[in-house]
Amino acid sequence: MTRKECLKNILLCTTLGPLTPFYGVVAGTCECGKPNTKKHKPGKHPRLQGWQGDNATTDHATIRRWFSDYPCANYAIISGVDSVVLDLDVRPDKNGVAEMDRLQAAAGQTLPPTITVLSGSGTGAKHVYFAVPPDVNRLQKPKGTKGIDFQRNRQGVIVPGSLHESGQYYRFAPGLSPADVDLAELPDWLLETMRKPGASSRRKNATVTDDIGELFDDLLREGPPAGSMPPGRLRPDEIVQRKMKSVPMRRYPDNRSHSDSHWAWTLARNCCHHWEQYLKIWKDSPIRNLPDTKCGRASYEANLLSKAFLDQEQQWRNPGRRRIEDTTNPALAKHMRKVLEHTETPRSPIVNAVLHLNFKKPELDDHGIARALNATGTFEKKITREYVKRIRHRYGHLWRTR
């Protein structure tokens, strides 16, 4: 595809919504210089701040300037503004095109002619565009599908004229470009498979409100979601807040929801799953005041907080320790057996002082124990949090937890 054809296709896409430049693909790798990984896909992340707002436009003059300034750039539309997209992905483990064929066969209906893009992956994947339905926030991808994604919430969708890492360009399907057809409405038979289920049983009796203050009152009154991890030792608020200062609020810059979830997951862990403390610190947290935040909508925050608080095994549950019988190294097996059978009685005054304070005040964490013992001035050597942590691990059979 020539540069002139690329620009023509990109400008045609302004009928689908505001466009923004993404990093392009050069010699099969991302123009930004980062290596290709599962989480970093070449040519599929924005190059400008404010890409969902101020730096997204349908103005042809601005797009032509970007096209000149960033000669290798890819482009994406912002979904949910003028159009929504059914992304029919095709990979070895899923086939969205085949799933859509099955849905059409089951309904005895077909999709109406609408603007359709063929992915540059060469697998047969497609982006099928539709006009934004009135109840878009109550829709999700079709039930029972694995390879169909529903792009509706200001997400970036790559458009024709952009280059895939495979070396092929995204193109309009024959006869289904904006010059050939208009955006179709999502058909009723498909909408029926995309409507979200009703509110969960946990919130079915709760007052529906868009007021954030009332939301937190409701969540506090209802208590933690069923199935969440039982609370551990209660840490002081200042300790939790100090730990959260080192947690990035935009761990995933291209995905605000994922970043919010990561921060909320970490907060739940640092609060040791104490629901009241979790809600209190979240309510006053700076992540809710970021300029690009999605927070502020009661439905978004209620769903986010409940999911993050649930016992998420992949987030903070340690994998099982290697069993002695599974190890073939005799020296390692001997060491593991020694650790498991360890019942040593401590002799050091500092160790005894740490264990004694832990027995009297099990609510103190490692830092609190170290600070309390240092304040007494009894020991010449300064006791650090790491030292207390080593004692806790070494004398676990004597350690008391609240």
In brief:
This protein has 14 helices and 12 strands.
Overview of this structure, please?
With 402 residues, this protein is of the alpha+beta class. It has 3 domains: 3-191, no CATH class; 201-316, no CATH class; 325-398, no CATH class. 35% of the residues lie in helices and 10% in strands. It is built from 14 helices and 12 strands. The strands form 4 sheets. Strands 10-5-9-8-12 form a 5-stranded antiparallel beta sheet. A 3-stranded antiparallel beta sheet has the order 1-4-11, with no helix packed on it. A two-stranded antiparallel ribbon has the order 2-3. A hairpin with a 2-residue loop joins strand 6 (90-91) and strand 7. Helix 7 crosses helix 9 (298-309). The protein is elongated. The termini are far apart.
List keywords for this structure.
402 residues; alpha+beta; 3 domains; five-stranded antiparallel β-sheet; three-stranded antiparallel β-sheet; 12 strands
Number of helices: 14
Mean pLDDT: 84
- Shape descriptor reads elongated
Decide which structural class fits the backbone: alpha+beta
User: Helical amount among residues, as a percent range?
Assistant: 25-40%
Biggest beta-sheet profile: 5 strands, antiparallel
> Can you list the strand order of the major beta sheet?
10-5-9-8-12
Question: What is the subunit arrangement here?
Answer: single chain
The proportion of strand residues reads 5-15%
Order of helices and strands: HEEEHEEEEHEEEEEHHHHHHHHHHH
